[in-house]
Design goal:
CATH architecture of the largest domain: Up-down Bundle
Shape: globular
Family: Belongs to the major facilitator superfamily. Phosphate:H(+) symporter (TC 2.A.1.9) family.
Largest sheet: 2 strands, antiparallel
Oligomer: single chain
Structural class: mainly alpha
Number of domains: 2
GO molecular function, one term: symporter activity
CATH topology of the largest domain: Growth Hormone, Chain: A
Main location: membrane
Strand order of the largest sheet: 1-2
CATH superfamily of the largest domain: MFS general substrate transporter like domains
Protein name: Major facilitator superfamily (MFS) profile domain-containing protein
Membrane topology: Multi-pass membrane protein
Radius of gyration: 33 Å
């Protein structure tokens, strides 16, 4: 297909990023800038209009737009947007993108100015005029696409209301229709007549300026940018056009703040409470007009450049069928000579029409995917007006309206909304721009819908918790995260994808249909949920509304809507890195025009496609291809092999060490609790016995020390002796020492603990050895396409170990509790620990050896990896024979046997090694070290987590066996909610997103959540549920982040003869960090007051400061990640440079 692409289109696809790309972003994005500016400012304008035109003499609250007027202002804009998207989308395909592109911008300019000049003699005519121009403004640029800002409301909480303030904010959304009056304009220009009966404790929605949607500009801007962009960074460019809304938000906010501050300084006015009439100065009527009119200036400034843009090459060549004109236009844009096609392309016989049978066969499901996901997204996004009052109240930046004058209210709202935008909406845009071409559209959209679902259920299920005023901060954080992931998710991708996957002659139309579907969802979200969210009790609904399903059920419905978005996302194809013609199948349609021979060449740092040697430039094969040609046959066979059964058996065999590791670490906390009751019971103590701090530190510490030693020793041995020769040793050590730990008998507590520590050291030694060996073996067996997922899956076997440990501990403790009844500790301290409990912990530890024992035979039968045999042992024929059996194919022998030593070989830590891999090793060791400091510090919070869940009562109210059961159940729950999903998210996305992106993302969110825990620490001490949520999110992103990638990457980027050693060094650095996290922070987190520190500990810096330090550590991890190269999709030899060594 690619070979049949027109050369002018290939020139665009492979062009490097140039200045014209950025000018196209600005020109195409100015409609979105204007849209966001207008919609940011409109809520303040409608606030001011309410005070000016709907003031009621004697009312306790300032005037507001009546609900029917507010609904009209909202509704006409939405209708205008929907109509404009559909109409201009169709027109863009019929007449060309350029011909109608200027119309949309001119509509914006004219209607923005006209909206500000809506003068008349009474409120009704002013509102009618304003609605008229806002319809046409929506027609040109749209009404409210979910992307810029949250909704805005007139609100006032009545102190006499019986409802909780938060519930009022949810349930009272439109307000009661006022008694019909004929209010007249007032102030120095007009006098007020008539009256209006207001309502207290009611939230009346203003025009929700929750974002922007371009009506005509939507399909045209998206289509133009997609057709101008190169395929490598096309997603970022289209998303950047959409993200121009962010600059529009900031411009609108800053200008409104400046303008209102200037008016407030020059036209002093009392608050509404002091003087209702004088609180709105006559000059306020000019303020809203100035703010609205200024929004037209940026659009007007880019009108000329829109008119000068040439028609897109894809429309000219593929729709207008004039390839010569397309070549001429793009030659000027790209500043290279593109020779025209031999002849003018004629319409092909197999062209099909919109909605024809052929169209539905090729693109029907794709169109269903883009329309349904956009529809579902906008339902969820626009429903946010239910919460806006509570957000502003929680921030505390908007006092009651009656305590401000009109201009001050504009200033306060602008400031608060700008803050919200800066914290969630705007960053979401630019995260998408930064990662869309790394992660891909599909992954970002799936991730966004997933987190929106999670956070919406987090709001819905503990709804009663959020209704309390003290819990609003947690609500605001989850709310902000929801809309961060909307923008770093489907809000951007639903805009990008429809501009890429449809044929050129339908592209603008299909984008318009998709966007219009979204606008239909917006109408459901804005107005439908006003009815749905009404109270189930008819007597408690807002006047004029029937009973609904209540706010909690509405939130559950929104969670389901987001989940449906996840499902429908699977209908949307991934377009990352593919040309528009590949996505749409247009090369197949144009196959009759002849074949195209493409070459790549370098000219002035610009890559240009060449057809039949159009541009006479020297062809230089890429380094990657040169390396690929030199790769040994056996290694190439492994790299290109399809996923087969042996891959999965290797995952199980290699991952069993991690299974045992996780099983042991999960169970040891149960065991140490039980050991404390059995061996360290103190007569007369009000609490059960526990291991003394030094004994507890020894039991945990020796395992960490053993692991560190094993990682270094077995890492080195794996390179010196071969992976297979030492691989069985690690598993045998685990088996023997798991059994030995369980058989730690002695006459005294000290001797039992000493024996246990001895075996735990060697158990750690074996587990440590499995780190470098398993990672290296799996990386050397895997194909390069899914290598990341396979290595991560080995590490993720820990998840099964956790679950197995939890389930077995629960099962066996339940059996013991049923068989050997015992009272609680407070009833009978001695009888609460039955003698048989001494067998319980031994059985739990011993069973951990069984899975390892079952796979020992399979490990011993595994052949040595081909990369060690061929590249280190230099026996290519043996490697061919071994892998021929594994792959079940005949591998062609190499023409010559490799010499035992190559000229360019270098040793570990040699000058050449440090030059080639020094920074990489620094990156892998430092990031693993920093991660494990943060990861292992979780023991600071374990007690609070269990208390918040409520599944572990006070130890003295339980007997020994019951405590084991309770702890096992609670830890299994935590693992299921955060740790285990994180592992498998990494497995699912590591080869789509890439190692670098996942690690950056993980460290970023760990930093954010750690600072959230730190700066609001005093708040969390009283709100443990919110703490649990952030704790779980932190460790979800640790596992769907650096905890997995730090294990994967060192097994890929170093030469075969040093791979296991370097992985062992990296892992050992991590274990050193684990010691700092597990023990160092026990001291650091002690209170600053020595009198309050735990017995035997000196004064520390306190938990809050420790959390801040952990946030800084995670941020350092983010920075050191830049030393780690991306290994996705490359062979191990490309990454390590070994192909060059064997040149």
């Amino acid at each position: 297909m690619a070979n049949e692409q027109l050369q002018v289109l290939n020139a665009l696809d492979v062009a490097k990023t140039q200045w014209y790309h950025f000018t196209a972003i600005i020109i195409a994005g100015m409609g979105f800038f204007t849209d966001a500016y207008d919609l940011f400012c409109i809520s303040m304008v409608t606030k001011l209009l309410g005070r000016i035109y709907y003031h009621v003499e004697g009312a306790e609250k300032p005037g507001t737009l009546p609900p029917n007027v507010s609904a009209a202002v909202n509704g006409v804009a939405l209708c205008g947007t929907l109509a404009g998207q559909r109409f201009f989308g169709w027109l863009g395909d019929k007449m060309g993108r350029k011909r109608v592109y200027g119309m949309t911008l001119m509509l914006m300019v004219i209607c923005s100015i006209a909206s500000g000049l809506s003068y008349e003699h009474n409120p009704k005519t002013v509102m009618s005029t304003l609605c008229f121009f806002r319809f046409w403004l929506g027609f040109g640029i749209g009404g409210m696409q979910p992307s810029t800002q949250p909704s805005s409301f007139d609100w006032a909480a009545s102190s006499s209301s019986s409802c909780p303030v938060f519930v009022q904010g949810f349930c009272r959304t439109v307000g009661v229709p006022p008694t019909p009056t004929t209010p007249a304009p007032r102030g120095r220009i007009w006098e007020l007549q008539g009256c209006f009966h207001g309502f207290q404790g009611v939230v009346r929605p203003r025009r929700p300026h929750c974002g922007s949607a371009t009506g005509g500009d939507y399909p045209l801007s998206a289509t133009i940018m997609s057709e101008y962009a190169n395929k490598k960074t096309r997603g970022a460019f289209i998303a950047a056009v959409f993200a121009m809304q962010g600059f529009g938000i900031l411009a609108g906010g800053i200008f409104a703040i400046i303008c209102s501050a200037a008016f407030n300084a020059n036209f002093d006015a009392p608050t509404y409470k002091v003087n209702a009439l004088a609180s709105t100065v006559p000059q306020a009527d000019y303020l809203w007009r100035i703010i609205v009119i200024v929004g037209a200036i940026p659009a007007a400034m880019t009108y000329y450049w829109r008119m000068k843009m040439p028609e897109t090459a894809r429309y000219t060549a593929l729709v207008a069928k004039n390839a010569r004109q397309a070549a001429s236009d793009m030659s000027k844009v790209l500043q290279v000579e593109i020779e025209a096609e031999p002849q003018r392309a004629e319409p092909t016989a197999n062209a099909f029409a919109m909605f024809s049978k052929e169209f539905m066969h090729r693109h029907g499901l794709h169109l269903l995917g883009t329309t349904s996901t956009w529809f579902l997204l906008d339902i969820a996004f626009y429903s946010q007006n239910l919460f806006q009052k509570d957000i502003f109240s929680a921030i505390g930046w908007i006092p009651p309206a009656e305590t401000m004058n009109a201009i001050e209210e504009v200033y306060r709202i602008a400031r608060a909304q700008t803050l919200i935008a800066l914290c969630s909406t705007v960053p979401g845009y630019w995260f998408t721009v930064a990662f869309i071409d790394r992660i891909g559209r599909f992954a970002i959209q799936l991730m966004g819908f997933f987190f929106m679902t999670v956070f919406m259920f987090a709001l819905a299920i503990p709804y009663d918790h959020w209704t309390h005023k003290d819990n609003r901060i947690g609500f605001v954080v989850i709310y902000a995260l929801t809309f961060f992931f909307a923008n770093f998710g489907p809000n951007a991708t639903t805009f990008v994808v429809p501009a890429e996957i449809f044929p050129a002659r339908f592209r603008s139309t299909c984008h318009g249909i998709s966007a219009a579907s979204g606008k239909l969802g917006a109408i459901v979200g804005v107005f439908g949920f006003l009815y749905l969210a009404q109270n189930k009790d008819k007597n408690k609904t807002d006047a004029g509304y029937p009973p609904g399903i209540g706010v909690k059920n509405s939130l559950l419905v929104l969670g389901v809507v987001n989940f449906l978005g996840i499902l429908f996302t699977f209908l949307v194809p991934e377009s990352n890195g593919r040309s528009l013609e590949e996505m749409s199948g247009e090369n197949e349609e144009e196959s009759e025009t002849g074949t195209v021979e493409l070459e790549q060449s370098n000219y002035n740092n610009r890559t240009v496609p060449v057809r039949n040697r159009v541009c006479k430039r020297e062809i230089k094969p890429s380094k990657a291809k040169s390396m690929a040609k030199e790769q040994l046959h056996v290694l190439s066979a492994l790299d290109t092999a399809k996923t087969q059964w042996y891959h999965f058996t290797t995952i199980v065999i290699a991952g069993m060490g991690f299974f045992t590791d996780a099983y042991d670490l999960f169970c040891i906390s149960l065991v140490t609790k039980l050991l404390g009751r059995i061996y360290y019971h103190v007569e007369g103590s009000p609490k059960p016995g526990t291991l003394p701090p030094n004994v507890s530190a020894a039991v945990n510490g020796v395992a960490l020390v053993g692991t560190l030693a094993g990682q270094v020793v077995f890492g080195w041995l794996g390179d010196k002796m071969g992976r297979k020769k030492v691989y069985g040793m690690t598993l045998m050590l685990m088996i023997i020492c798991s059994i030995g730990s369980a058989l730690s008998f002695g006459h005294t507590a000290k001797s039992v603990m000493t024996t246990l520590c001895f075996f735990r050291f060697w158990l750690g030694f074996g587990i440590g050895g499995d780190y470098p060996l398993s990672a290296t073996i799996m990386s050397e067996y895997a194909n390069k396409k899914t290598r990341g997922a396979f290595v991560a899956a080995v590490f993720a076997m820990q998840g099964f170990g956790i679950l197995a440990g939890g389930l077995f501990a629960m099962l066996i403790s339940a059996i013991f509790e049923a068989k050997f009844k015992a009272p609680s500790y407070e009833v009978d301290p001695v009888g609460s620990t039955v003698p048989q409990a001494d067998y319980l912990w031994r059985i739990i530890l011993m069973v951990g050896a069984l899975p390892a024992a079952l796979t020992y035979y399979s490990r011993s039968k595994m052949p040595e990896t081909a990369r060690y045999t061929a590249l280190v042992a230099k026996d290519v024929n043996q490697a061919n024979a071994d892998m021929g059996k594994v792959l079940q194919v005949d591998i062609e022998p190499e023409p010559v046997r490799l010499p035992k030593e190559t000229v360019k070989s270098f040793g570990l830590f040699s000058k050449e090694f440090m030059h080639r891999h020094g920074l990489h090793l620094l990156g892998t060791t430092s990031t693993w070290f920093l991660l494990d400091i943060a990861f292992y510090s979780q023991n600071l919070f374990q007690k609070d987590i269990f208390s918040a869940i409520g599944w572990i009562p006070n130890a003295k109210t339980l007997n020994a066996v019951s405590e084991v059961y309770r702890i096992a159940r609670a830890q299994t729950l935590i693992a299921l909610c955060s740790t285990v999903p994180g592992y498998w998210f990494t497995v699912a996305f590591i080869d789509k997103i890439g190692r670098f992106t996942i690690q950056m993302m993980g460290f970023f969110f760990m930093t954010v959540f750690m600072f959230v825990l730190a700066f609001l620490y005093d708040y969390w001490t009283h709100h443990l549920i919110g703490f649990v949520v952030f704790y779980s999110l932190t460790f979800f992103f640790a596992n769907f982040g650096p905890n997995a990638t730090t294990f994967v990457v060192p097994a890929e980027i170093f030469p075969a003869r040093l791979r296991s050693t370097c992985h062992g060094i990296s892992a050992a650095a991590g274990k050193l960090g684990a010691m700092v996290g597990a023990f160092g922070f026990l001291f650091l987190a002690q209170p600053q007051d020595k009198a309050k520190a735990e017995a035997g500990f000196p004064a520390g810096i306190g938990v809050k400061n420790s959390l801040i330090m952990l946030g800084v550590i995670n941020f350092l991890g983010l920075l050191f990640t830049f030393f780690v190269p991306e290994s996705k999709g490359k062979s191990l030899e490309e990454l390590s440079g070994e192909s060059n060594e064997h040149n």
